[in-house]
Amino acid sequence: MTASELFDLTDKVAVITGGAGGIGVVYAEALAEAGASVVVADVDLEAATTTAAALSAKGHRVAGVAVDVRSAQSAAAMAQAAVDAFGGIDILVNNAAIMTDLPPYGLSNIPVDDWDRVIDVNFRGPLLCTQAVIPAMEARGGGRIVNGLSAGAFMPGGIYGVSKFALHGLTVNLAAELGGRGINVNAIAPGLVDNESAYVALPKDSEFREMIAATIPGKPSGPPEDLVGALLLLCSKAGDWITGQTILIDGGWITRL
Ligand SMILES: NC(=O)c1ccc[n+]([C@@H]2O[C@H](COP(=O)([O-])OP(=O)(O)OC[C@H]3O[C@@H](n4cnc5c(N)ncnc54)[C@H](O)[C@@H]3O)[C@@H](O)[C@H]2O)c1
Known about the structure:
Blueprint: H1 3-6, E1 13-17, H2 22-33, E2 37-42, H3 45-57, E3 62-66, H4 72-86, E4 91-94, H5 112-139, E5 143-148, H6 158-178, E6 183-190, E7 192-193, H7 196-201, H8 207-215, E8 221-222, H9 228-235, E9 246-249
Parallel strand pairs: 1-2, 1-4, 2-3, 4-5, 5-6, 6-9, 7-8
Bound molecules: nicotinamide-adenine-dinucleotide.
Nicotinamide-adenine-dinucleotide is lined by residues 17-18, 20-24, 42-44, 67-70, 95-100, 121, 148, 150, 190, 193, 195, 197-198.
């Protein structure tokens, strides 16, 4: 097998939640360039449709659909839409999350409604979407699930960090449960991403951002495009033997022993 064949996604169907967001659009284009048909699923249907139209105009096979990952019914409708559009599902990227509109509380005083709001999207959402796509993946002999984690999972980071650490646990557990059914489950945990959402939480030229960057041994930050190599690895033949792993892409910010 040649190097390009290892990463080829021709005839594969990929569904990406939050596909109209900053990282989602880059992921959708990368999966399409690797040969996959792509379903861009987002709670913002207009943005999903616009993203799909822009990628289709470049010659890719892309559909935009609505999903609210908090709802099992909506996740099931997303999976059905993918099957209707492209005949099945091979890849799910659980990328949708709340990260720009986080409640301004520590864990010791967070109102339970705010806790639920973040957990419902960032943690329960990936579970519901996974449950929704499993039948379609099994019908094709297996599949790949990639969860959008964060380096923030591995440091004290309030509700956002907790939601992502929980998703790390879900990744490990689903990998154990689904391995025998041909489905690999992994996660990508980016560090300091250079995009608009990241700048909401940590402004571009803030002293705090610079202070963190100074502690990172390798490249301190990168654009969403720097995550694409790992995504293609985990979604393709090249990643056949990898499951239950969270890959940190963060310049060595987090060291997990
Ligand atoms: N940007 C960063 O610095 C960074 C760093 C580490 C991890 N991440 C993770 O990467 C992923 C993407 O981040 P981003 O920067 O593209 O964020 P973003 O805010 O630009 O995009 C998030 C997308 O999710 C969608 N979404 C929100 N709630 C939804 C719901 N209930 N159902 C369906 N879709 C919903 C939004 O409409 C949006 O399109 C997230 O999981 C985030 O936690 C981002």
